[in-house]
């Protein structure tokens, strides 16, 4: 457990602070070695389920406590795997804007902070780990983002800091209110009844603060407006980490804090959360129908997909929680696939403006075209691919919510979510028509065929595509991995 956190943290800090003069090849090798070692340690941890629990700040009762259960293990494995993929992708692209070692160090530090967040077993420690991730991600966005538009990059960095700072403040106040009221910051003790024993009005206050603060991180509508600019300007590796890891920290925080510790307060807020989740699904899909920038379109699709996660959590049932956890992992894999692909297209074309006519990707770059179709099909929830099970189970959970949820409202949310899924099919087909089928280009216009993917980029895309198919065809192992922890959590909430 200690090595899992120490390896990426130490290597990342060394690359950022002491490795600026390193040659690019050496920095790439160090980042890749750290990411590979972290993945091996994550697999070992997933099997052994070891942990660490030491006194840290005895004056205020905070412990240095880390461990994993069935809810955290999939996210730890996802984070470690994505860390390897973005480190490997550095052989394809290291953006300008500063020292390559600093860029690679920030990638590794984001991984370290996310792993600490997913394994923290103390509420205060969770907050500290959560906040440590934001600094290197801000550097990736504001310093290594799109060099073609300085103003947009600055705006994206400012929005990221402003929104996350407000969300963090609300989350911190909620955690302090919870910890001082319950008399402990131990997440296990809080989930075992220390939080549920609080008076209803105190539970509602804590839940409102935590849900709003973490809602910025997810993000839920209408707190999502920082995400599309951040994705649009971030380098490819930054977008992959943002979508596959950072957004998952928000939904994981919802599960660990309000859902587990103040269930009655969360149940009171769940109708509102379900409605805003559905609005995000439909709103994100409608924007995707008209959005011209392909990278920004994928960002808005993330808002829609995270809406399914929020709706499933709001339903309050065991099926809903299972759906949210599965959709979390599925979105992480599919979004990583699409952002690597779109980043590659932007590198080749100079822009990903859908209004510009392109040669048919299926003809000029068949491997890229195939991966694009897989990613789009998974994004629209096609059966047999990863995106299907999370969305299907989320809609089912909303149709059959927990007994203490207003069934009529949640049935309406389920219908609206199904409409949003249909809209997702429409915008996915729009992208396929524009990019995969292509527009007729007169050879006399000097159009250059798009170079196909190969080497490291092909390996990264191939791994993500294979996992996308595997999760869709065989969802049982992931659902089984989380089943016991979910059942225990739901039983405790009742």
Range of helix content = over 70%
Which class best fits the helix and strand makeup? mainly alpha
* Stretches with pLDDT under 50, minimum 5 residues: none
Specify the overall morphology: globular
Number of domains: 2
Largest sheet features: 2 strands, antiparallel
Mean pLDDT comes to 88
Report the β-strand fraction as a percent range: under 5%
Please tell me how large the radius of gyration is: 22 Å
State the strand order across the main sheet. Answer: 1-2
Cα distance spanning the termini: 32 Å
**β-strand number:** 2
| H/E series | HHEEHHHHHHHHHHHHHHHHH
Tally of alpha and pi helices: 19
Write structural notes for this entry.
76% of the residues lie in helices and 2% in strands. Strand 1 and strand 2 (62-66) form a beta hairpin. The longest helix has 33 residues, at 150-182. The model has no long low-confidence stretch (mean pLDDT 88). The chain folds into two domains: 1-261, no CATH class; 263-494, no CATH class. With 494 residues, the chain is mainly α.
């Amino acid at each position: 457990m200690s090595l899992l956190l120490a390896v990426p943290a130490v290597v990342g800090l060394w690359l950022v602070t002491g490795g600026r003069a390193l040659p690019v090849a050496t920095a790439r090798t160090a980042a890749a070695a750290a990411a590979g070692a972290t993945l091996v340690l994550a697999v070992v941890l997933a099997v052994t389920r070891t942990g660490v629990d030491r006194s840290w700040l005895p004056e205020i009762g905070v412990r240095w406590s880390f461990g994993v259960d069935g809810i955290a293990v999939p996210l730890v494995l996802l984070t470690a795997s994505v860390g390897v993929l973005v480190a490997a992708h550095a052989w394809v692209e290291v953006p300008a804007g500063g020292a390559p070692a600093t860029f690679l160090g920030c990638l590794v530090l984001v991984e370290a902070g996310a792993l600490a967040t997913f394994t923290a077993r103390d509420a205060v420690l969770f907050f500290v780990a959560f906040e440590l991730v934001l600094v290197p991600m801000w550097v990736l966005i504001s310093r290594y983002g799109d060099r073609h538009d300085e103003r947009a990059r600055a705006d994206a960095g400012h929005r990221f800091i402003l929104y996350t700072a407000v969300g963090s403040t609300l989350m911190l106040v909620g955690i302090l209110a919870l910890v001082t009221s319950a008399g402990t910051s131990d997440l296990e003790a809080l989930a075992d009844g220390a939080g549920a024993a609080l008076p209803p009005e105190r539970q509602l206050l804590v839940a409102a603060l935590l849900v709003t603060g973490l809602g910025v991180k997810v993000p839920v509508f209408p707190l999502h407006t920082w995400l599309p600019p951040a994705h649009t300007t971030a380098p490819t590796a930054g977008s992959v980490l943002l979508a596959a890891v950072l957004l998952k920290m928000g939904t994981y925080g919802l599960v660990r804090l309000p859902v587990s510790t103040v269930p009655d307060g969360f149940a009171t807020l769940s109708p509102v959360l379900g409605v805003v989740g559905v609005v995000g699904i439909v709103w994100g899909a409608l924007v995707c129908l008209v959005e011209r920038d392909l990278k920004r379109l994928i960002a808005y699709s993330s808002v829609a997909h995270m809406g399914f996660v929020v709706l499933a959590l709001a339903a309050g049932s065991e099926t809903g929680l299972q759906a949210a956890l599965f959709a979390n992992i599925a979105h992480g894999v599919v979004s990583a696939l699409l952002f690597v692909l779109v980043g590659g297209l932007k590198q080749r074309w100079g822009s990903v403006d859908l209004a510009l006519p392109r040669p048919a990707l299926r003809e000029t770059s068949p491997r890229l075209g195939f991966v694009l179709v897989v990613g789009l099909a998974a994004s629209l929830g096609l059966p047999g691919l990863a995106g299907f099970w999370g969305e299907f189970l989320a809609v089912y959970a909303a149709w059959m919510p927990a007994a203490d949820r207003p069934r009529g409202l949640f049935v309406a949310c389920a219908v609206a979510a199904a409409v949003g899924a249909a809209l997702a099919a429409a915008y996915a087909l729009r992208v396929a028509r524009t990019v995969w089928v292509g527009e007729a280009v007169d050879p006399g216009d000097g159009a250059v065929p798009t170079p196909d993917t190969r080497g490291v980029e092909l390996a990264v895309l191939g791994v993500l595509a294979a996992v996308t198919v595997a999760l869709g065809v065989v969802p049982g192992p992931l659902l089984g991995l989380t089943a016991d922890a979910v059942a225990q959590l739901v039983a405790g909430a009742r």
